[in-house]
């Protein structure tokens, strides 16, 4: 108690500040989510698609149509519909998919891990290859490595992903047979390991079933490499740009003059200073992949959240669209928070 | 993916396959397993009382038996006994009594009884889901099913409100909604008085050749064979239908041997797969028709000569031979080939001069029309072709492309001048199309008969309504068939509909797969006769 008395004032200040900061963050998340939900909900209602028609079909009688219309609550004012929906979401209920009559939360729990697994592997490939490539390209500016990095990035930016995916499938699956085909597993390996996380690589590793792991890896490696390539293109260009800025700074010249090794100058000084910017780039890249790469998922028959939301949108399944949108929104918010935390780790000024 | 992308992809795939000499190691699916790539994202429910989509019908046909059903190896023979061993029709033609076959069992082990049949049909009427009209058109309602659908011992009698043609009633019972469910299993899973509807959306309780193992939306459907199936255990013990959206991916899977059948190859991939080793392409006529209709509220379109003229301004052969090649065949009648009463008369072809003469006779020198088209590539291409040929006779055709909601809402509200669309039969009886193309008892706006195509086009059918009503109660099969032929002859000449094409489904499959029948124009795919 004596300690508390002595230092209470000083200790309460950071605590109060922390509480205030947390409340502000939570409030900002809540407002962002509310805005996201509201806008998506309104867009869903004014879009020229008819959820009733999607359920009952073109030939249903007017009475059947009307019954479903009432059942969906579409006769109520928009604001009332939104408030009902909001109340359900707050309780963790995204409603039932209008089309397959399953809880949307179950659907998302099924498709999101597939995307998470793919995107994580993709962004790892992008980081592992993209960051060193960008650094080397900056250090050896104008050299053949820089030119190659430029071409790699240019191709990554400009090549249609569906075309590159199909060519990859054709060469590595169709002709060479090095990787598995579309889908997450060969049919012989399906439903062998129990689903704990929904990520087959993780589940098979937990179960110790390495044959399933190998098969799953053979299926994921190509789409992940494809997504990784697109991340690589972005990450490497941004890394190069950040590094060039640092390498032209005076402190780098000073370090060199002091006789510091080139490796130390690059990695211990220049690279350390671009980490915060890189975190933003990587977080954005990862968020984009987690949002789901629809074309990649279609070509590789990958049942992820991108194709789930797209199919739902085209089928006028607005509960599924809204549920998916909330998840994507949460992903962005979580990655933002994670970036903020990492800033504090890597940038002493933000502490 | 748009047409350009498809073309680009197909060309690239074809080129790459052609220039490479590297051998492809061909995998093989197990001998007792059938693996199919298909687009199954249209499945919304697997409850036979509710299912009304193509992929859902494929599942249902193999999981549920019906009172009468089609033999996949002889579709032309029409409906055959299945759960009903035999039936008799009362003298007044309104009551059919079915005798239930002994020895049938559900996948649960429960016997298939008359009570199950009674429950299944009553349930479909009471639930009143989208396809319920197939049964309720006979006068069954939730209030009268206890009197009109009755089990007694091993018989079930159904009593219709009028003496319909027996073939009409029985054809309707072959539809998905006629599937017989296991009453005990279904009611054990009832929730909130839904008669097991929620549970049956994702589970099965049938007695067919296969039972449902799993349905993962947009991912796969897995079926396991029923060893006690009354026709013998199917050769394919497991059937896996994988959702593969992209045509090129389906083709690669097939050519690698990872699947046995690819059901959604586009024309470019069909052409490419045709030369692949171990792959064969099969064509099968389906029931879907592509048609153009003319709103009779339009003062010029209501003139018979103008209707005729537009039918001569369609380049049927040009489209069939180009972008529709292999996918559609010319067919100018509302009954698809293979249906009872179908005819093969296709009198119209592109004849601009004749069209001009007809327009001149009608006093029409030029006019501007709006055609509504849903955003589907092949329909848009057809609309563009029509725009070109109509222009040759001085008709400016403005194409409005929109979503189903936009276009259908206007079509159903009788607002479009011209509609370009597709129509597939709801059940395998001629009345399914006759009853919408050529039947319109009340043409007034107030009637709001939005389900009837004739009404949507404001067409007073000029006597065809009565003839259609007469055909549906005609019990002599040959006479009935002749009646539909006569209706179609008049329809071709006078109706504001230009039926243009009938769908062909092209399937690529491994050459060792035999006895595949997709169901033709009348039913869905049957897995149980398939061997490898």
Description:
The complex is a heterodimer of chains A (351) and B (532). With 351 residues, chain A is mostly helical. Chain A is built from 14 helices and no strands. Chain A has helices spanning 2-46, 51-56, 62-71, 78-90, 104-139, 144-158, 161-175, 200-207, 210-247, 250-257, 262-290, 294-299, 305-314, 318-346. Chain B is α+β, with helices and mostly antiparallel strands. Helix content of chain B is 32%, strand content 20%. Chain B has helices at 3-19, 54-63, 114-127, 133-136, 145-148, 166-173, 183-188, 197-202, 247-256, 267-274, 304-311, 316-321, 352-361, 377-391, 404-412, 431-437, 453-456, 464-471, 477-494; strands at residues 33-38, 68-70, 79-81, 84-89, 95-100, 149-152, 155-159, 210-216, 220-225, 238-243, 261-262, 279-294, 328-330, 367-374, 395-402, 418-423, 497-510. In chain B, the strands form three sheets. In chain B, strands 1, 8, 9, 10, 11, 12, 13, 14, 15, 16 and 17 form an eleven-stranded mixed sheet that branches. In chain B, strand 6 (149-152) and strand 7 form a beta hairpin. The radius of gyration of chain B is 24 Å and the shape is globular. The two termini of chain B are 34 Å apart. Chains A and B meet through helix 2, helix 3, helix 7 and helix 13 of A and helix 1, helix 8, strand 10, helix 9 and helix 15 of B.
